[in-house]
User: What shape does this take?
Amino acid sequence: MTGAAGAPDPVHVLLGVLRHVVIQDVRDLGDIEAARRHGVDVAFDVIPHDWNNTGVISILPKWVREGGTQATLDRLKQPQVRQQVKDNPAPMLLIVRDRLWHEIVLLNACANRASIGMTFAEIGRARGVDPYDALMDMLIEEGEDAPRLMWATHSFDEAQIETFMRDDTCAVISDTAALAPDDASQTQPGRAGRDRSGSVGMDRDRTWTRHEGCG
Assistant: This one.
């Protein structure tokens, strides 16, 4: 950031802060206000939902995913590769790095439909394995449908989101969209995931809803 004497350009600060990384209550807004007092033109944005959904396979390092789905699954059958995945210090989701499996829910599956709606802590206990091994086993079991295995992660802090949104300069953004039950491409605010292919969604009342169908 550049001070007033430096004729600052507007600074864009992304504050979709993962609550398991740097949650510091209102201190983040305090930093913004402090910058403004020093003449910095600051604006920021926030993702308005506290659950995030993505493909389970995306948690794997890029080198594991090279060569397509079958090559990826073949690597996951190798014990040394699995250990390297588990030892990765910087996976895409820090909630996985922190092993907060009780905050991660299976959202979509074909071969593993019976586990949809369970947390990965529950799935690991049911299988008698580490949740990290469970997710890799499930990817293998899904076969060519492995890229469709999805989870929802409780990655953001709702109270902090609300605090940010009260600021007049906070923009609301999202990089996700859910499909309507009739397969029309329209967003459904309040949903955590897709409404097809055997997925579950989180409604506004924070209840998980199962949606039938796979394939």
